Amino acid sequence: MSDWSQGYPTDSAYIDAIQVEINPWRWQQSMLFSGRACPSPRAPFRFLELGCGSAMTLIALACSYPQAKFTGYDFMPEHIVTANRLIREIGLTNIEVREGAFAEMIAEGPGEKYDFAAAHGVWSWVPPEVRSDIVTVLNGWLGTGAVTYFGYNAAAGWAAAGPIRQIFRRVPRGRGERPFAAARAAVDLWLEQMGDMAPQAAVLWQKLKDAPDHFLAHEIGSEFGTGIWMEDLAEPLGEAKMTYAGPAVLAEHMDALFLEDEGVEMLRRAVDEGWGETARDLLHRRTFRNDLYHRGAPTVSGTTMLEKMRALRLIAWDEALNIGTHPSVFDQLKRGVDERVLLGFQELCAGDGAPFGACMEAVDAPPMAAFQAVMTALVSGGLMDLRPKADVEAAQETCDRFNAAMMARLRRGGHVPGFAAPGYGGCVQFSRPEQRAVLLGETEDEIFHARLEKLGVRVR
Ligand SMILES: C[S@@+](CC[C@H](N)C(=O)[O-])C[C@H]1O[C@@H](n2cnc3c(N)ncnc32)[C@H](O)[C@@H]1O
């Protein structure tokens, strides 16, 4: 390990990853639910990413918001080379990806201040002095009212990974492609011996075991790759005048959809007693948090929130397609909308879609109940909101170029983490091999393609 790494595993490059939760269009709605205004994703905003890796997410965002300016920093030169190769291939001019450690950013200064910032997979992977550098950078580089996103391993669910992390740290590494082969075998053996005594570790390992070694090196081989409690992040961010706003993903604002009645009651009590976020993580068994912080964003009233939500353009959607548009929902929902009510919404929103407000009016219920019904259908995947048509059209050409580059990779058998979806306002992912087969034209799926076209992902 070299000196400049400051404890971060720099022996191998991180995977080319895409993070669907990084999406200014969607953050605007989440901020509204937290009672705060967000810098407008329709304006020419400035967006900063700290520890951007090979910047796949940032590049897709630069394609999706051609009116905005994007800057990414990462201290691993391999990541910067990969990012700049793709930027050149697409021919983008509204993004810059630079090599630099956070400590170097402090000395450099921002030029102009930023409206948005994001740090995904960084805070819970770096030592305390680097965390302190991040706070100093944000303090100097963010403008008034800016919104910052943090994606990080959550202690509540991640604590169970402790023994796996210890095995990865202690079992000697081999050479070549699979340096963790012996550590992997040791984890398998340990879990076999545990039977059903380490259920959460078994679930985590099930999710991680097929990932390549160079991903695991960062995810669990990293010395500082621990889970974090929300309060332990909120406190230092307070030093940079940043206050917790709420979850970045709209669905996560609706706890009652995911918890049994007793869980909702326990959470309510914990919120009253002042330990709501800890209880929330424990009850949801969270292994990861995607949170938004703001630097003095103005408050918005319930009436303004309702007005803005009513204006959203909704289309019929189907979560079962698994296009990565409804992160953190999947099979965890405990409640949903009545089937007939949902079908009514989907009929109304067929084709080009209909406003959220029109769906509310179609429900035979008082306004609050109607609002909740449409919200539930929206966050659970039965409906989807699209950006305004003018914004989609403005982003279409650059997103087409990004997606053409991804399709070329796919045809060469390369790794494609996701696509740029101008209608969605960011990235979407395809996790299933059969979706790749459809994209490559090896199998037919007209419904899948029709849905992609609705998002503005034009790949045939
Ligand atoms: C787990 S990766 C996440 C990459 C990317 N944000 C993503 O989610 O795909 C963490 C990134 O932070 C970068 N990093 C770690 N310490 C850093 C530092 N002190 N200064 C700048 N970048 C750093 C690493 O090089 C790596 O690319």
TrEMBL record:
Residue ranges occupied by any Methyltransferase domain in the UniProt entry: 46-122
Keyword Transferase: yes
Entry keyword set: Methyltransferase, Transferase
GO biological process assignments: methylation
Keyword Transferase: yes
InterPro entries to which the protein is assigned, alphabetical: CFA/CMAS, Methyltranfer_dom, MeTrfase_reg_dom_prd, SAM-dependent_MTases_sf
Database matches in PANTHER family: CYCLOPROPANE-FATTY-ACYL-PHOSPHOLIPID SYNTHASE, FATTY ACID C-METHYL TRANSFERASE
Protein name stated in the entry: Methyltransferase regulatory domain-containing protein
